[in-house]
Amino acid sequence: MRMLTAASSILQELERTLQGVRPDEIAALAERVASSQAIFVAGAGRSGFMMRAFAMRLMHMGFRAYVVGETVTPGIAADDLLVVGSGSGETQTLVAMAAKAKSLGAVVAVLTVVPESTLGRLASDRVVVPAATKDGAAGTAASGQPMGSLFEQTLLLLLDTIIMHLMERKALEGAAMFSNHANLE
Hints:
Layout: H1 2-19, H2 23-34, E1 39-43, H3 45-60, E2 65-67, E3 81-85, H4 92-103, E4 107-112, H5 118-122, E5 125-128, H6 149-169, H7 174-177
Parallel strand pairs: 1-2, 1-3, 3-4, 4-5
């Protein structure tokens, strides 16, 4: 019974957090993605895994999507988009990456708990996720989950929301996307 109580608590936290995200910020990011020539994604740790999942879904939809740091990722160029997931908005490797992308003329977008963070200030587009940071920084939401779990879970759901919006916009169904799915498994 304890397991079900924990799962219920997680779902309640997710619902509360998702209701706190501004729909206009998600819509703006979806439009930015749709209008970009190439989309690069980055994140550290578990947030990075969520960003990788986003890149994979974008690729399934036919977008030119890349994960920063992979050996097959090309250079970013003017008018390309870098989407960064960072709860704190202060991860130094991600800050340096965003600054470099911006200096090359790329657009930077961030999904973060802390909009006034360094990444938040560098970004043209921000999606504020009212979750807890992994260090439990003052002013962030409380969570019964460890470290940044609430942010990471919310990040995945928000990115899937963008995918669903883009699927609707392009009149795509999951079956149509399957043609771009890996087939050497």
